[in-house]
Amino acid sequence: MAARFRYRRRVEFAETDQAGIAHFSVFFRYMEEAEHALWRAAGMSIAPRGQAGWARVAAAFDFKSPLRFEDECDIFVEVTEAGRRKVLYAFTFTLGERLVGTGTMTTVPVNKGADGALSSYDVPTDLLDRLRAQMA
Amino acid sequence: MAARFRYRRRVEFAETDQAGIAHFSVFFRYMEEAEHALWRAAGMSIAPRGQAGWARVAAAFDFKSPLRFEDECDIFVEVTEAGRRKVLYAFTFTLGERLVGTGTMTTVPVNKGADGALSSYDVPTDLLDRLRAQMA
Amino acid sequence: MAARFRYRRRVEFAETDQAGIAHFSVFFRYMEEAEHALWRAAGMSIAPRGQAGWARVAAAFDFKSPLRFEDECDIFVEVTEAGRRKVLYAFTFTLGERLVGTGTMTTVPVNKGADGALSSYDVPTDLLDRLRAQMA
Amino acid sequence: MAARFRYRRRVEFAETDQAGIAHFSVFFRYMEEAEHALWRAAGMSIAPRGQAGWARVAAAFDFKSPLRFEDECDIFVEVTEAGRRKVLYAFTFTLGERLVGTGTMTTVPVNKGADGALSSYDVPTDLLDRLRAQMA
Prior knowledge:
In chain A, a hairpin with a 5-residue loop joins strand 5 (98-112) and strand 6. Chain A is globular and about 45 Å long. The first copy, chain A, has helices at residues 26-41, 125-135; strands at residues 5-10, 54-63, 72-83, 86-95, 98-112, 118-120. Chain A contains two helices and six strands. Chain A is α+β, with helices and mostly antiparallel strands. Chain A has a single domain (5-135), classed as Hotdog Thioesterase (Thiol Ester Dehydrase, Chain A). In chain A, strands 1, 2, 3, 4, 5 and 6 form a six-stranded antiparallel β-sheet that branches. Helix content of chain A is 20%, strand content 41%. The A-B interface holds A 18-21, 24-26, 28-29, 32, 47, 50-53, 55-63, 66, 68, 110, 112, 116, 118 and B 18-21, 24-26, 28-29, 32, 47, 50-53, 55-63, 66, 68, 110, 112, 116, 118. Strand 2 of chain C pairs antiparallel with strand 2 (54-63) of chain D.
């Protein structure tokens, strides 16, 4: 079984909608928050002091059951691929024993130029080593 | 070629992030806004007076190029499947001639019970007819 | 000196804007989150199972210094008035020794009718007692 | 009577909460959107190409009646003070004949340094002239 990092998140009132559940767009924010928490756990910031960090090139989520105000959801993160120009993540959301949903994100490292343009680059391998070590 | 509905959306300042671009979670809100605009164009509200409307069971987006503050993005919506218990949408985002990204959403009609629980149901066929007529 | 409840909040990436700081609207969400954390600390939910909870009738914030991605801000909450139809809060945000800003919120209890209309009501006094006890 | 600029905004589904109304933090975003629309109407962008624009040093709102999904709110903007280092705005929100609320914002122009630090500066007077001309 792959190693997984756990991030716990409480649903805030502003994140609910008139259906009485957490709005679907919020789950994409939660995936990103879990990713960033993993990086912190590995001793790094994913976007230090105003840097652009990692751009998302793909994101998807399958919703299985809703979250409600003050639910405390467990978000399990796996790094499914870690390359110098691309890192893939898989996410499983649960509320106690109940499956809330699963998602994926594909991310690429980007630098912001003087004109604001973003360009990708090869991240140092030791950064990937630290991320992998955190997952082991 | 399939009929497409167009929704134009300007990127607001609050939707940008420290990378200087529209945050990736915003694109999921834009897809939903475009869907709701299509329903209005068809003479309906997708969630009248506090109703739950249509829950998302899947959503995905592939990001091709970024959007920035005050960019006016064209969002083209296609209804790729319209059943009484499920409607699928495909979205293409462009900025002038540039492709911004493509996405999909799978939605199911839900009612909110007295206890707040959501359950799906068969929507009236004339509702689907109106949606299809708008796309023709 | 008045008793204060402390809520700690980390700034998430999605909450930053292209100025590289937490967007000003986020501070209003933080105030509400701190309020709700206080209620939980007092053994209550401010809006159980889909209820409307407490509506805001006024909110204000004075911004003294910015917050950035991954800053961990301390939010101190005071209940400055607690009546059966109105509760007032004052908030002080700090980052370490630095003052980030101060804010206020005026809230009224509301019920949601069958038609979705909101109306205010007198909350039970023991609810206010519990809130006061938590602050003591 | 002071000149006023009008911005119309439809409430989106993601902006509602479990009380069935637009979340209170959304009104602060709407004020900012109306401010930025005023700048565009005056032929300017308030934050061109990744710039920091104008920081908020104070914001307040008094809520008189709720907004719901798909309500189209009129937001009237007044520039109540326009200096080279500070511009103040007053906002009135209405839904048809009904008053939704009133708010204020105090803004200061800021530049972002190479290290990301923000500092205020004197804006050119012709910029203020254009803003005033738009209001006349």
